Prior knowledge:
Chain A is of the alpha/beta class.
Amino acid sequence: xxxxxxxxxxxxxxxxxxxxxxxxxKQDVEFIWHKExxxxxxxxxxxxxxxxxxxxxxxxxxxxxxxxxxxxxDFANHSGIVLGICNGFxxxxxxxxxxxxxxxxxxxxxxxxxxNLRVENAESNFxxxxxxxxxxxxxxxxxxxxxxxxxxxxxELEADGQVLFRYCDASGDITAAxxxxxxxxxxxxxxxxxxxxxxxxxxxxxxxxxxxxxxxGAKIFDSVIxxxx
Amino acid sequence: MKEPVxxxxxxxxxxLSDDEYQYxxxxxxxxxSFTELxxxxxxxxxxxxxxxxxxxxxxxxxxxxxxLVKAGEENAGLIDIGDGLAVAxxxxxxxxxSAVEPYQGAATGIGGILRDIFxxxxxPIAAMNSLRFGKLSEPRVRYLFDGVVRGIGDYxxxxxxxxxxxxxxxxxxxHGNPLVNAMAVGIVKHDAVAKAIASxxxxxxxxxxxxxxxxxxxxxxxxxxxxxxxxxAKRPQVQVGDPFAEKLILEATLxxxxxDLLIGIQDMGAAGITCSTSExxxxxxxxxxxxxxxxxxxxxxxxxxxxxLSESQERMLAVxxxxxxxxxxxxxxxxxxxxxxxxxxxSGTNLVIKRNGKTxxxxxxxxxVLGGGAPVYHRESREPEYIKALQAFDVDSLPExxxxxxxxxxxxxxxxxxxxxxxxxxxxxxxxxxxxxxPGLGAAVVRIKGTRRALAMSTDCNGRYVYLDANTGGKIAVxxxxxxxxxSGAKPVAITNCLNFGNPYKPxxxxxxxxxxxxxxxxxxxLETPVTGGNVSFYNENPDGAVFxxxxxxxxxxxxDIEHVTSSCFKKAGDAIVLLGENRGEIGGxxxxxxxxxxxxxxxxxxxxDFEGRLQDCCxxxxxxxxxxxxxxxxxxxLVVALxxxxxxxxxxxxxxxxxxxxxxxxxxxxxxxxxxxxxxSVPEDEVSKLTMLAQKHKVPMHVIGKVGGDELVVSDKIxxxxxxxxxxxxxxxxxxxxx
Lengths: 229, 740
């Protein structure tokens, strides 16, 4: 099994994803330059966090036109596993691989802190090593993380079990106080209808071992690895 | 366009003195061109030449076995940390730009210090900043504070360096002249360290990164003046930051260094192309020829003067090994960076600048730079008169409070003590997944992947102490920063400093400067933490006078085994609370006097450096022995504030404490005095005897003062407060003020 971590100019969590996969999860992993046009040799593509192209416009708005994104769309449309974290999630929404959009946080400020996530669906390709209702402690770091979608998209997401993670308090209750950015329905991570593309704002790539305060993020990588083994 | 003729009047308008004008003519042996005047004026400005500070800076202790590069030799200090790795670190000011344009001023300050680090080949792994503003109740101060925090956040977050800590203080003295000091820390392999040198005649000089525009012309000169009513008009001298470009430049620079393509490299900060070319040339044989027609420009019609003095951000100057020019270009192309060969290293001694085919400047490069021909002054100094009066103030004349609980709440709500969570939540402090101690819990700690090691870092300075007693205040700044990293489990190894003072031509200011340096030097010698470099910022004055003298210390500590990392919060009910050191009730210069009586007065706390060293050794040995559950330095707000912090800093698991103190003098002085050389530890009850033995060995007094547990902080019969309620005060204060 081979992971590919895409390097957009301005990505800055590429090294964290690479490190977690290579040195903690002991997987075969390679960086993929944004000018690449083929992803044939990979089983899983990771779009890391950061500020692709500086994100001076709407986040991800330029990255979606990056040459590699044609290949990512093709890869996803052929059932390839794609995981977008933070800026990666934003790019996936911009490119239409995931529904909805990520808007400025409701307090209009960057927010970096550990948050709690409730696992809403523990059967997915990205959460099968979690228990339904389990609370994961994983940090966020973003200025545009307010998940937005229209009412019909939201109800479709809910009905199809596409909402994987919701911001919650330490005991798993979904509250406004536990929502760091004003996301609708406290949504922190979703997958597409086919279940092969997932995006989440929190960073499993910063919480993969206990010295970083929490190792809960490792369960997300483990889920993907488990799936493909 | 015809250039003005250079005469004494024009030279004075450029900030040169009569003597400096004559000295320039002597060096040239002829009259100067307008371009040459521009070059001399920025290179001899305080900001670039350190002309009024260098004689004092040379007195800092700079020797140490871990030092790989000494202060002043390169862009930043370099410290060996074992495993074939070195740490480059430095702190710098961006005060004046931030005073008029807080967002961009702070942002470009971060950009500048990051470039200093990666131009040595080191990848930045952490940033910190030390900020000071006027009173937060003022709308203008809130505007500056908000702008600076956003500027730091937006730049550092986009660049991808974790901003892991620092300090924020508020005091009237900084009104109108905030201090924005940024520190960066990077890691480099010993064999991949790059130098800022131009050698090997014939080697090509390449500029890469952003194009050059008219922004920031004379920024260095602006930084060398006092802030006044006209300063707002200098907003255009503040540069605009582009963190995305900086990120690309970082990757390109490290790639060039890794592939061994460069002879030398330097970033362009103050004084832009002028400073980087003359410094690199002067460090080599001296000769360099630059053709300004080759420099990529952002706008048409720029004169040589403007191109040379532009402080457009995110630019690098590299001297390329012969035959590697194509490879350098290929790397720039890969990262979508503009690059041009703009000149050649020559065998001469002069920096020769051409524009439109004509030579517009021809100056011995050595004459321009610090350590070469740049002027050096010894300024007059005189003890300020206010000091004796303030030190003689009788602190006993102030009444003792009736309600100690209310004092504690007031102290915890003071923006100087209250949680800075509102600030650090806006900084990405976890990118690169190395942050082991998160902000707000004491010294910042980042691990080094692939090793057992971690680095601890802290910035510290209490400007009030330095104002009341510059020498002692300087000592305390070093001692406290060292104590902070010790409490995290680290051995302090070296410092960088950022010396923020008023106008050095005022003898009273220069006296503060000299005395603070003497104090810092004494503490660095005693604690074996040499000075690796830093920055001086003079002219920090507003129309009412100078800011508190504020020599900020950036301390680096090394933790050999990550198992030893310790945080400040209590961990377990039933643990004994132990005070290492003695309560002496020194209340002068304290936060208590400031919040309770509106006074900055008295004698600041005294410090015995020999004792401080033993205390720190004792604490570190205890931590390394593995039985210490928490360690917290007692500082601003005194013992009760430190105890309260131990109780609630871990918000997921707050714990109360009951403490019994013996009061020999006034209780308020003991509870809130900021006596130095004290550390609070929590240890399991059955390990106290081990700590006692260590304390005896190091000849450090030790008192078991209480026990962890319950949900209240109880101190003798004076204080009884619910910990959760206290935490709400502490964590909510700044957020509430900023939301108002």
